[in-house]
Amino acid sequence: MKNFLVKYYKEILLVVLTLLLTIILIKIFKPIEDRSELLKYKLDQLDQNINKVKNLQIQLNDSITSYKKDIEKIDENILKIKNEKTTVNNYYEQKKDQIKGMDKKEIDSSFKQRYKY
């Protein structure tokens, strides 16, 4: 057997290479399976998912807009409260200055008028 392989190694090698080349050529030129239906289905699924994400984005944008409006209302209320606080502070500053100049009887009559006792 060894003598046979040694004697005909060129021919054996040529046959093996020819077979390999034939197999490779068949694989290369073999027609590709038609997968268009599968691709269409996958594309449809992707389109559906994209539409879902778009709808979700629209909902999120709407909720963000409503939250922004709520925040603006709260900011306006805070500004109003700050203004009222300043007004009240000014009133009591004036009253404090008035009380400093009064004697005990005037303070007592002022409290009587204010708290009606």
Oligomer: single chain
Radius of gyration: 47 Å
**Into which percentage range does the β-strand content fall?**
under 5%
Percent of residues in helices comes to over 70%
Global outline: rod-shaped
How far from one another are the termini?
A: 133 Å
- Structure classification: mainly alpha
Counting DSSP E segments of at least 2 residues, the number of strands comes to: 0
In round numbers, the mean pLDDT is: 87
Number of helices: 4
Order of helices and strands: HHHH
Task: List the topology elements.
Elements: H1 2-7, H2 9-29, H3 36-100, H4 104-115
Give a brief rundown of this model.
This protein has 117 residues and is mostly helical. The protein has helices at residues 2-7, 9-29, 36-100, 104-115. The chain is rod-shaped and about 140 Å long.
